Amino acid sequence: MTEYEHVRVAVIGSGFGGLGAAVRLRREGVTDFVVLERAGSVGGTWRDNSYPGCACDVPSHLYSFSFAPNPDWPRTFSGQEYIREYLEHVTDVFRLRSHLRFNTEVKRMTWDGERLRWEIETSSGTLTADVVVSAAGPLSDPKVPDVPGLDTFPGKVFHSARWDHDYALRGKRVAVIGTGASAIQIVPAIQPEVAKLTLFQRTPPWVLPRVDRAISGPERWLHRQLPFTAQARRGLLWGMRELQIQAFTKRPDELGLVEQLAKRNMARSVKDPVLRAKLTPAYRMGCKRILLSSEYYPALTRPNVDVVASGLSEVRGSTLVAADGSEAEVDAIVFGTGFHVTDLPIAEQVVGAEGRTLAEVWGSGGMKSLRGATATGFPNWMAIIGPNTGLGTSSMILMIESQLNYMADYVRQLDVLGGRAALDARSGAVEAWNHRVQERMKRTVWSTGGCTSWYLDANGVNTTIWPGTTSEFRAATRRVDLGEYDVLRAPVPETARERRTNNAQQSTQKNAQQNAQKNVEAGA
Ligand code: NAP
């Protein structure tokens, strides 16, 4: 039997999820772990998305880790470069560098039921791990629609998440495809420099103004000197969104009132009634993600912008043809067409206990997990931002931190069980959890709002969004309920070496947990 390098935990990805997992593991006293990253630096989606205008539409003080507050956020909403810098900073401050394996793409993970471990083949070799934490993220693999004739296009083509900064758009005729969160940031950023911008809009989004401003020197000083002021600011931002979520999940009609604000916002910038009609959505606000921008509508009124209110359906050489037959001649195409969210590519690389991939097990029935983390037949494998953990509003970092609580307790439970053990989610528990989620989903705006969105899978089932508040999710993921799992024991006894390693790991962890407890008791 080939012996590979073995670690206690292998984390996949080094975005918010992967770095958060690494910090949390260290805090739990687990130091025997690696973070496998296919790129050459940390940052995940905030590394890959560098398109002009890229920024976060969740306020900075909420879109950051609770355990790593940044009193120096320069603006209320951060640009991509600041968030990326923040993640580099977190990597250094929490001493994560030694755990990172860059340029290491996971090709396949296979469960070894004899030895209760995962065999992980990567682009730079194979290793084994007791536990896999997949933080590969839902926004990692770009989706480009299969448009007939695209291969005949003689100009430049790229996706918003793969921006080619060496290609100058200045003076070019550019088509932007899509009107999601990415496209509405790209359009105002490139409009002033391109000769002509044609926007292919299949479905208009609801857009509210983004009240972005510089955070003043005195405010930052206050946050540095009195950290509780930054906490209070975060708390306020969180509380407001927590209340808003209730409208999405329980009272979608209330969102009708906000539609009036959005229409007024549009009317202030867009005087042309024909353009206004094109831009007005015909579904309940919130059904698709509400977008925040104060620059998008003004940009659409500029003379060099043309809005085609129809999706791109064909390419004939340098001519783009929309579904309604309108045509535009362009030099470059920018696809702002999103990511593979409901068909997570990482699921194709995980081979479980029965020799089938997670993608095959989910198959035509769609993604299902226990508490957004684990799946039957895939013992000791968990996802960060798994099925139904997304948010329609508020900060994903809150959801990630809840999943990290779950991960930490999972590893703790394995330690308590001792020896070689693994946890496999019981199918009854998975079914019960999904039944609860889907029952709650019925009255949400994502089900009743009259739109199709990337939240829904091919069957029209919402497998991406959590239909509740972030506090409800936190409560549901605080602890691992062993009643929801089968405990697996290795048929092959531990070797003397494995026993020594396991005992050493458990004692290091116990010491670290005791120290952490002492710190808490001492008020540190
Ligand atoms: P997205 O939300 O999936 O939007 C894709 C867009 O492409 C939609 O408007 C879609 O139209 C359109 N589309 C697809 N095929 C088309 C075609 N053939 N012709 C014309 N339009 C077509 O993708 P995204 O904007 O990249 O956003 C992806 C995720 O990143 C979202 O979760 C978003 O919230 C997140 N994001 C967040 C921020 C932030 O500030 N926090 C910023 C950027 C992105 P339909 O609506 O008709 O399907």
Give a topology summary.
Elements: E1 5-12, H1 16-27, E2 33-36, H2 45-48, H3 80-93, E3 100-101, E4 106-112, E5 117-122, E6 125-134, E7 156-159, E8 173-177, H4 183-190, E9 196-200, E10 207-208, H5 217-225, H6 227-249, H7 255-269, H8 273-279, E11 291-292, H9 296-300, E12 305-308, E13 312-316, E14 319-322, E15 327-329, E16 332-335, E17 350-351, H10 358-362, E18 381-383, H11 396-417, E19 421-425, H12 427-441, H13 445-448, H14 470-476, E20 485-489, H15 496-521
Parallel strand pairs: 1-2, 1-6, 2-3, 4-17, 6-18, 7-16, 8-9, 8-16, 9-12, 10-11
Antiparallel strand pairs: 4-5, 5-6, 13-14, 14-15, 19-20
Helix pairs in contact: 1-11, 5-6, 11-14
The chain binds NADP nicotinamide-adenine-dinucleotide phosphate.
Residue-averaged pLDDT, rounded? 93
The structure class reads alpha/beta
Inertia-based shape: globular
Strand content: 15-25%
The whole-angstrom Rg is: 24 Å
Total number of strands: 20
Bound molecules: NADP nicotinamide-adenine-dinucleotide phosphate
